[in-house]
Amino acid sequence: MARSEYPDSPRVGVGAVVLREGRILLVRRGVPPALGLWAIPGGALELGESLKEGAEREILEETGITIRAGDPVFTCDVCEWDGDGRIRFHYVIVDLAADYVSGEVRGGDDALEARWVAPEEIGDLPATKTTLKLLRQIGFIHLSATMSAQPE
User: Fold this and answer.
1) Whose CA is closest to 49, among 103, 12, 98, 16?
2) Domain hosting residue 88, numbered range
3) Domain tally for the chain?
4) CA nearest neighbour of 35 among 84, 72, 89, 71
């Protein structure tokens, strides 16, 4: 299994953008990178999984929600260096559009919390820069909206 911390090569991360009744599904991360920050739910793709399979598994593990994953809507890479200049984390993340199927939201696995968030609530949540960029790109929040963006 590839290491997530101090990897030998980039890891593939997969997430899902799930909208329901005008709200988006977000999690507060319970592990580095971005510990304690709000983000799109997801995690590391496992060997042999398709992006859709990985997104469906990760969202169920982190939020208790069953989804049907669709096509990619956002891609980014996240690199974090330590104080010695070594790469601590390097992820290439692919977020897929997804439809809610069933389930009640609860934080689980690597998520401290999970919840449905309305656009007007975003400004009160410390979130990753990439989450803010994604939310603006998909039109969930407007460019003028403020959000407490934090480094990954």
Assistant:
1) 12
2) 11-119
3) 1
4) 89
| Cβ–Cβ < 8 Å for 57, 69 | no
Q: Tell me how far apart the alpha carbons of residues 50 and 96 are, in angstroms, rounded to a whole number.
A: 12
Convert the pLDDT of each residue in 23-80 to its tens digit: 999 999 988 888 899 999 999 999 999 999 999 999 999 999 999 999 999 999 989 9
Closest CA to 76 of 86, 91, 59: 91
> Which pLDDT tens digit goes with each residue over 6-18?
889 999 999 999 9
Q: Parallel, antiparallel, or unpaired for β 111-117 and 23-29? A: antiparallel
Specify the CATH number for the domain of residue 96.
3.90.79.10
pTM score of the predicted model: 0.87
The answer to whether residue 77 sits within a structural domain is: yes
Q: Does a structural domain hold residue 145?
A: no
